[in-house]
Design brief:
Layout (H helix, E strand, L loop, with lengths): L5 E6 L7 H12 L2 E6 L9 H8 L15 H8 L2 E7 L1 H9 L5 H8 L4 E5 L3 H5 L1 H13 L2 E2 L3 E4 L5 E5 L3 H13 L9 E6 L3 E3 L5 E3 L5 H12 L3 E6 L11 E4 L3 H12 L4 E4 L6 E3 L20 E3 L3 H8 L5 E8 L3 H11 L4 E6 L7 E7 L4 E7 H14 L3
Parallel strand pairs: 1-2, 1-3, 3-4, 4-5, 8-11, 8-13, 11-12, 13-16, 16-17
Antiparallel strand pairs: 6-7, 9-10, 14-15, 17-18, 18-19
Helix pairs in contact: 1-2, 1-8, 3-5, 4-7, 9-13
């Protein structure tokens, strides 16, 4: 993805306005060209100097400026993406009603490129039927919306309305700069991710190498393309995004239970998790003491449920089943064997040394094709969805 994209960061008058300073800093570090627009109310919460120091240029604050009399048109034409963070109930209502009476609302009305809103406000305000109706209207008009998180708010209440993590906003920005289509709208997608653990005793377990980053990228990209996403997550190194329906599990048996529980209602199932292939025949109730062991230790194992194979056996008509294969050699050959043996529609194969990294190289293997994709894991995930749509799996 090009790092020369132009992003207009618009800050409105919510208590979370200070968090947009960190967002601006992250965008600069990512290499984007940034302009910051602040409403009058936003300046009551944050000094424009905080932003201008980061982006190394003045913050835009006035609609009527003699030096740039049509600033709203100039900014709208310049931006590849406009991000309103935080987006208050006021600006949401204005845009939804077609009101253009200040710098931000007129800029948005003139925008021909995507606009991403980050709602953040008091829970009662956010859940108000008028605000929800306005958000639904904007969604139908094609505006991008990242829902708020839940938690303790500045007013002391708990609930929806909390400004989301800036890292998640960055993922949304990167997605909407390159992939604006809603080709997965109306689809239900199940993604498994992370690693499972099989315990020998309360202290020790066997597991597979997996950070969960690739699975999270697949889940995020599916969500940003309009899907209703359910995640069954084993152990991962990152926080689960707040906007995904997520179930956390530990063992392969727990993962199998949750996958089978949800599989029948899914249009697409992506088995990305590193599920352990075997488990101890017996899990000790107490910690195995070192002095009780001989010089040679023998452990007995039994196979775990082959979740992907079982899904292949019970796959419904028009349901898409995607498996993953982390290999150390003969990547395409092993992927094709898995494709046939598991009755999957596609196997995504990669070398095991990409586990835990932010970038990846993968091979998308179907009956007739083997297409390599590479880049950041989010880019690769979007390319996977592009491949699925293009090849009509």
């Amino acid at each position: 993805m090009s790092k020369s994209k132009n992003i207009l960061l618009a800050v409105t008058g919510g208590i979370a306005a200070y968090k947009a300073i960190d967002l601006a800093s992250r965008l600069v570090k990512e290499g984007y060209n940034i302009n910051v627009l602040m409403t009058d109310n936003a300046q009551h919460f944050v000094n424009p100097l905080s932003f201008s120091s980061i982006i190394d240029k003045p913050v835009v604050t006035e609609l009527f400026n003699q030096e740039s009399p049509i600033e709203h048109i100039t900014l709208a034409d310049w931006a590849d993406l406009t991000v309103i963070a935080p987006a208050t109930a006021n600006i949401i209502g204005k845009i939804a009603s077609g009101i253009a009476d200040d710098l931000l609302s007129t800029t948005v009305m003139a925008a021909t490129t995507p606009v991403l809103l980050i709602p953040a406000m008091n829970t009662n305000m956010y859940t108000n039927s008028i605000v929800q109706s306005n958000l639904k209207k904007l969604h139908n008009f094609g505006y991008k919306i990242l829902p708020p998180a839940s938690g303790r708010l500045a007013c002391g209440t708990y609930g929806e309305g909390r400004y989301p993590d800036n890292e998640e906003i960055l993922f949304a920005i990167k997605s909407f700069l390159t992939h604006q289509q809603r080709d997965l709208e109306g689809k239900k997608v199940l993604v498994t991710l992370g690693s499972c653990r099989e315990y020998l005793d309360p202290m020790r377990y066997i597991s597979n190498v997996s950070s969960g980053k690739m699975g999270l990228a697949i889940a995020r990209s599916a969500y940003f393309r309009g899907a209703e996403v359910t995640v069954v997550a084993g152990k991962i190194t990152e926080k689960l995004p707040h906007y995904l329906n997520a179930v956390e599990v530990t063992t392969s048996a727990e993962m199998a239970e949750q996958v089978f529980k949800n599989s029948d209602s899914m249009d697409i199932i992506v088995m990305n998790a590193a599920v352990t292939d075997f488990q101890p025949i017996q899990e000790e109730r107490d910690k195995i003491k070192k002095d009780s062991l001989s010089d040679t230790i023998e452990l007995a194992f039994k196979p775990t449920t082959d979740i992907l194979k079982e899904l292949g056996n019970r796959k419904k008509k028009d349901q898409i089943l995607i498996g993953f294969a982390a290999e150390t050699q003969n990547i395409e050959e092993n992927a094709r064997k898995k494709l046939v043996g598991k009755k999957a529609d596609m196997i995504v194969a990669n070398h095991i040394n990409t586990a835990g990294q932010n970038n990846t190289e993968m091979l998308l293997v179907t009956t007739n094709k083997a297409e390599p994709v590479s880049g950041s894991k989010l880019d690769a995930a979007h390319k996977m969805w592009d491949f699925i749509g293009t090849n009509k799996l």
